[in-house]
Amino acid sequence: MSDRLAEPLATTLGARAANPLATMGLTTVDDLLRHYPRRYGEPGTMTDMDRLALGEHVTVMAQVARATVRQMRSRGGALLQVTVTDGRHELALTFFAKRPGALRPHEDKLRPGRQGLFTGVVTEYRGSRQLTHPDYVLVGVDADDADDAVTEASRPIPIYPATAAVPTWRLQRAVRTVLDPLTEDDVPDPLPAEVRDRLRLPTRLAALRAVHVPDDAAHWQAGRRRLRTEEAFVLQTALAQRRARAAEQEATARPARPDGLLADFDAALPFTLTAGQRDVGAEIADELARPRPMQRLLQGEVGSGKTVVALRAMLQVVDAGGQAALLAPTEVLAAQHARTLRAMLGPLAEQGMLGGADRATTVALLTGSLGAAARKEALLDAASGRAGIVVGTHALLGDQVQFADLGLVVVDEQHRFGVEQRDALRAKGRVAPHVLVMTATPIPRTVAMTVFGDLETSTLREVPAGRSGITSHVVPAANERWMERVWAKVREEVDAGRRAYVVCARIHPDDDAPARAAADFDEVPEFLDLDGAATTERAPLRAVLEVADELRAQPRLAGVDVGVLHGQMTPADKDAAMARFASGEVPVLVSTTVVEVGVDVPEATVMVVLDADRFGISQLHQLRGRVGRGADPGLCLLVSTAQPGTPAAARVEALAATTDGFELAGLDLELRSEGDVLGAAQSGRSSSLRLLRVVQDADLIAEARAEATAVVDADPGLVGHPELAAAIAAQLDADQEEYLERA
Q1: The pLDDT value given to residue 629
Q2: CB 3.0–4.6 Å: which of 9, 42, 326, 541 could bond 391 by disulfide?
Q3: For the chain, where do the domains classified as CATH 2.40.50.140 start and end?
Q4: What DSSP character marks residue 274?
Q5: 495 Cβ neighbours under 8 A, 6+ residues apart
Q6: Residues 624 and 440 sit within 8 Å (Cβ to Cβ)
């Protein structure tokens, strides 16, 4: 970053103007120039007044229709009432003063026929919407001279993300103050000149002037395209460097053996692998046999059999003398994985035990809640190499955890882990281990290319034979007859020897807590309140403990044991709750979303999601995937309070209409903000992507990826591209790089 861009705004603008900007996180010239307009007001185009919501802080473009001043008898003083219009609807602007003369400056400016931008909070008085003491700027009036007025009145008006303390036109003036004096030397350009020329793009300074001071719509559109390309190019260059660094590392080749554990496992499989499982397995086997570390993302539809593919890869590594570590995000899921792997391996997981196979290994489980004796045994099994497969949570990352020869790291649900955590486990190998990243959230190609661009991608779309499928229905929460039928259906499934999940968004009932009180949510990183619950009256979210009590008292479920599972329980209690549910001792489990991923109870056939309209599509799809995993068909009942026609209703209706996770993932991305897509909302940091949209900008991203790969191939260290190297360092420092690992 140049000295001019790094200059504090307090120096450039003065402390008085800079202090309000600092509250918005804008402290340097570069910060301000990257605060891009949200939209543009076209001269003569008015804001639709009919869409203004009460309580909303708005900036509207409108024309003054009339203005009157009158004395106030009840409270004294004077009142200026200005009516502005969009041509169809009207909005009142109200100004108060102790004497009429104090209102003269407003009265002189706000003459009928004049257009301007008006900002304030929308309130209501006697049935009409109004802005009280709004801030405003008039088009063509608030310029220094007549020529400026004509020019400014003909230009698109940049409208910035603003606050009550810093309205959009103050941001515009501040931007002009810092932007106008800059030269090309002041603004380093991370896009190499040859890339700019090939893609016919302007310099960075020209693009900044186009988006902040556009001559017309085509001008700012060209500027935004250039800046979107820059964001994509910087990100793709960072990913290309990661790929190049991985390709330079040495790994131990782990070729398949014709007479090892993998062959014995395949021979004993009670089912036939899908074509997708065979093809992806061959890809992985080939990469494991190379002396370069595999870096592969395995994504698949819910229930597509990713675990079998991962286990076969782990067995190939064990056959070659190495060990595999499976990193899971929660203790519930880690324990589930360990049980599943042992069950799938059978005697092959009983090394040295009575009844164990002649060729066998050990599956060790290492979590933070293990007792001292069990923990010591697991650590010894890992360090000695006796355990060919070690399953664990973050406990695997501890300094005391050592491996004899770590050959493969399998990371389940990568979006739950940061890059530092993955690298900490990878560093436990004597040389770089192979890495297989698994995700059960289907990822459209553009997102995989952007977020997992340093990994090769394999996709499983088929569901193994024997699965009976899932039917989904939306249930109106207010319809008592429908709700009665929900619990009757749960009873029917229980009486048939099956199981039912009931999922709630929070643990404790608290009618006074706002719907967005994140402290009450339990391991819900994707939880989205997409429809403004904070500003509208909505029923409080249902909670595990209150729902469990209600179901125990529900006549339809008389005599049925109801269990609970949530993140505030001890690990031992979680395991016990899952075990009782899996065995059928407690056939109804009221849970938070700790059951969202990976939990596998084939007898579970019903999933009831309360407040389903308050969850994101991907999370609902994951929850639905917990049922219908055996021979019996699954049923997902989405209990919703959403009004027809709302985005929330559209989400649950879309989920009920299809089980295609890739179709739903695309819809989910259209409904969610870009920060959510890249994980920035969950990480608590703003994404460095300001303008790039990974869904809409697919072609641009592919183009940037090709250009970035060519640059890195020719100059891996970016020695000849210092501006690009500096941009990567500034935007993707050690902390922010975590978002590259999320989806």
Answers
A1: 81
A2: 326
A3: 34-208
A4: P
A5: none
A6: no
Can you give the pTM of this predicted structure? 0.65
User: Beta partners for 506?
Assistant: 521, 543
At which residue do the structure tokens 């991608």 appear?
A: 457
Q: Which class does domain 34-208 fall in?
A: mainly beta
Structural contact between residues 105 and 66, judged by C-beta atoms closer than 8 angstroms: no
pLDDT at 269 over 60: yes
Which amino acid is present at 64? V
CATH superfamily ID and name for 470-511+539-658? P-loop containing nucleotide triphosphate hydrolases (3.40.50.300)
Query: Three-class SS of residue 732?
Result: coil
Question: Which of 101, 63, 60 shows the shortest CA–CA distance to 80?
Answer: 101
- What is the per-residue pLDDT across 303-332, written as a single tens digit (0 to 9) for each? 778 889 999 999 999 999 999 999 988 887
State whether residue 239 is helix, strand or coil.
helix
Percentage of residues in the chain with pLDDT exceeding 70? Answer: 83
Long-range contacts of 506-512 (CB under 8 A, 24+ apart): 506/541, 506/542, 506/543, 506/544, 506/592, 507/543, 507/544, 507/545, 507/566, 507/567, 507/568, 507/592, 508/543, 508/544, 508/545, 509/540, 509/543, 509/545, 509/546, 510/540, 510/543, 511/540
Q: Classify 49 as helix, strand or coil.
A: helix
User: What six digits make up the tokens of 162?
Assistant: 């603003």
Q: What is 471-538 written as a DSSP string?
A: EEEEEETT-HHHHHHHHHHHHHHHHTT-EEEEE-SBSS--TTS-TT-GGGB-S-TT---TT-GGGS--
